[in-house]
Write the structure tokens for this entry.
Amino acid sequence: MIAQADQVGRANQRARAAAGQRDWVTAAEMWALWRQENPADAEGYLGGMAALRGQMDSGMEKEACAKAFRSFALAVTGVSVEDHIRMGDFARHLKDWNTAARIYAAVRAKWPGRPEPYIAEARCLEKLGQYDQAFYVLSLKLRTGDPAFRDKARGLLAECFRQIGQNRYRHMVDGVAHDPARYSGAKVVLLMYADGEPYRSTARKLKDSFLKLCRFDCEVRILDQVAIQKRPWFAELERCKNNPEQIGSRGGFYNAWKAYIVRDTLRDVSEGDMVYYVDASRHFLLGFYEDINSLFRLQHDHDETLFAGAFNARLSHGIGWMGDRPELYDALGLAQEYDTYMAYPARLNSSFLLKKNAATMAFAEEWALHAVYETISLHHTADQAIFSALAYKYGFYGYNIQADSVAQFLEDSPHVWAKDPNVVHRMVNSCVPYYELFRDPRRPEFWPGNLAICV
């Protein structure tokens, strides 16, 4: 342990020495150790980029270099605008257009007056064939009325506008925006719990519309209390009824069953399949009426978990009813992070999408492990409190409610509209880049402002 700590402590010097000797592999390893110990130090990220550039010049495959760079490039903090643009330019040199676009997006959010990142991000989105999103990014800067920027962006704007028109025409003629055969190997399971009315009616509408719209291999599972009574874990739910503060709340089980049915479903599906949990709501009684496949395609194509609930920066854990009890964080092994977590936005879990992999399985197992024992000491959002804390612990992204322009009119209850899954799908299908919609809420310094739906 002491030797490892000493190695980390000297990583900075060893990385510099290795770079001076052009030993790029050792330099990359040492900079990785330095970032682990000093995540806010910009030198570890810039040094890591230089080491990868040296490795690539020495014969490292560009794709492998891009993967290594992607593992740390999006976590960088504290660098200047020039260095951040350099990192975006390196990702673009690697032809990792998605990572480059996300870096430039962080630059324009933090330094909105700089014109370069808008054009650079739009060009990356153009390379990805995302012309609506490229046009949207350029329009953010065009709104400021800068004639010099308009002249620089004129050609790219014209190309995006032409491609948008062609794509919409093909969609109108063919009736299909994407080739569904590409996703024939992936499965999406829509999971719901519906006991009594209006929940059963809502679940039926969601099921019928899901099966009609889904272009993936799909399945629907609807459970009720009769169904979960047959599960071996149902006896554990009886512990919830012993809560002296809120006996009988939410059917007496505090929605603790949610963790168990998600865990069971993830256990049952194959690696890479997706479990889409949706509340059978009493607030929104319709089925799906937006294209649901865009969200599934995004999650299918990304290793990171994008949609682990929704959040709004105005509602933090620390406001007193969203999971602020220290005993919960003690139980989750997060006691040291309690004060930090209280400043994070709370996660709403009315709907979420988990792609099965090692991280989501570990998350689901831990959620179910604590679902009963910590739920009985909490509040009316008990299942949500544990979900929210663990989503941060595992580093999952969430849907940014503030990206939806509707949220500004919902001062009293900004979470309400995110309870309707169609709102999330509508935004995913809009011209806003997905990385503006799905964010790591721990990093508010990179949140964009004044987003609006394009029409």
Observations:
- Confidence is low (pLDDT under 50) at residues 1-6, 407-412, 448-455.
- The two ends are 57 Å apart (CA to CA).
